Amino acid sequence: MLRVICAVAVGLAAFLLLWALLHRRDHAQKHLEQRLQELQQPRLRRREGQLAQVQQAGRARDKKDIPFKERVLRPLSAYFERLANQLTPVEMRAWLQHRIVLAGKTRQLSPGAVFGSMLVSGALCFVLVWLYADKQGFAFPRMVALETVSVLVGMYVPLLAIKSMIAQRQKQIMKELPEVLDLLCVSVQAGLSFDASLEKITARMHGALIDEFRHFQDDVRMGMVRRTAMKNMAARCELQDISLFMTSLIQAERLGTSMGKTLRNQADNIRERRRQYVKAEAMKAPVKIVFPLVLFIFPAIFVVTLVPTLLFLMKNM
């Protein structure tokens, strides 16, 4: 009997101890949750108050407070851009996208926007020529011919602007290429890898070529094969020097040759090609200066030298 009483007492004591521990744990958990709710309530009230203020400000905002550009021009331009994108043929859309990439305006322009500007420019030229032809009283065949030429010229104007952007960008890339190659060569010969050298250069320099190298790095980080990324960069620049440079890097990577030696050879070749280009441009200067001489300088010289002689002869005859 005594053993039974002792066993019951020990069991009861163990049960009371376990219950006390669980109750203390539940009490601590409830206290912690209550404390967290107390801390979160002011933040929730503040957030609810800010949301209510924003909603009230949005309801109180009148149309007159919204700028005209945001209210009318921006939605209208987006609508016409979507409409022009739908009207653009697929082949022409791909061609325009390629031209936009060459111009480096992928974030500012789209094929639909360019095609829409072509349509607007052509329509404007059509209206101007029609008003002029109607005022002059031209015959119908002549008016049709003029309208056709005016529409073609008007639609070519945006393409001419993009062509000028492409030429300027390619010129800037050719100007930056020798310096970038020299820095790459020095960095690789100093012990850095090609990727680390390119990372250092793109972090400290700016320009069209640097933007293309950043695009190349983004493509490689996204998982694109390095050779494909280099070929895509050459296609985006569409320059012979860039194509030769990328081809040499692909061959050096494929054959396992020294990257420093390859970069040094390419830097020397690009520098020599740049020197020859400058010499060729300098040799064109005498030919280009003929037209200003004939139009502006020679007439002034003739006036200064011949007019006094002519006046003297006219006075003495």
Largest β-sheet summary: none
Span between termini = 165 Å
Order of helices and strands: HHHHHHHHHHH
For the residues shown, what is the average pLDDT? Answer: 79
Beta strand count: 0
Low-confidence stretches: none
State which percent range the strand residues make up.
under 5%
Radius of gyration: 38 Å
Please tally the helical runs, counting DSSP H or I stretches of 4 or more residues. Answer: 11
Based on secondary structure, the structural category is mainly alpha
Task: List descriptors.
mainly alpha, single chain, 317 residues, extended
Describe this structure in words.
The chain is an all-alpha fold. The protein has 11 helices and no strands. Helix 5 packs across helix 6, helix 5 crosses helix 10 and helix 8 (226-237) packs antiparallel against helix 9 (240-255). The protein is extended, with a radius of gyration of 38 Å. The N and C termini lie far apart (165 Å). The relative contact order is 0.04. The mean pLDDT is 79.
Concise overview:
With 317 residues, the protein is an all-alpha fold. The chain has 11 helices and no strands.
